[in-house]
Predict the structure of Distal basal-body ring component protein FlaD.
Amino acid sequence: MRTLIAAPAALALAAFALAGPALAGQPVTLKAEVTDADGIVTLGDLFDGAGAAAKTPVAVRAGTHVMLNALAVQGVARRAGLDWANAQGLRQIVVRGGQPAASAPAPAARGNVEVLTWARSIAAGEVIQPADLVWGKAAAAPADAPSDPDAVIGMAARRPLREGAAVAGRDIAALEVVKAGEIVTLTFDADGISLSLQAKALSGGAAGETINVQNPSSKKIVQAVVTGPGQAAVGPAAGHMKLNRTTRVALR
């Protein structure tokens, strides 16, 4: 979806909305794979669209990787004139040394390998907790097996999961934070204009997913991007938030 809301729809939204402050800075998105080549982590290593702030240092990587506090990174970006929405609510970001690897399906690992397994049987829809995961040995690991527990914690089970089975990425999904029929705060931000109104979600979704929402006054239906519990957005800013949902080397 290249255009989330047309100009006439934006004007209709404005008729019901309240004025708000402009965006804090240039919107940026976290890279799908965060790496640095020289041991100095910069805003350009972390974000697409960093522009003139790309060379701003954020941290030093002394080993094979460094773990950054997402809130602290957001503060550095803001002071440099960048606006990272962090729509997925990441707590930490892992930066690894080297160049980003080419995107390709990972083959299944073979042999006596260490994998994350389920510590108990889990029902579909349950939210994964730290105590639900335990490291174990397996003859083969799923091709999409997560390498870090924090990539699984806070996600929801797509289907019933059996105790002792290896954890696979296809078994989990982002937690749905907007429910169908829920009243959400719908925002529009563009060119220094910030507007908001209450709308009805016609479908549910996780952060970064596109859902249909309806203006209760005009009954007009538009597509919006979920930005958090009870919140959705339309307009250019929503496009950046949707991109943030792509797979990345980062911890939830």
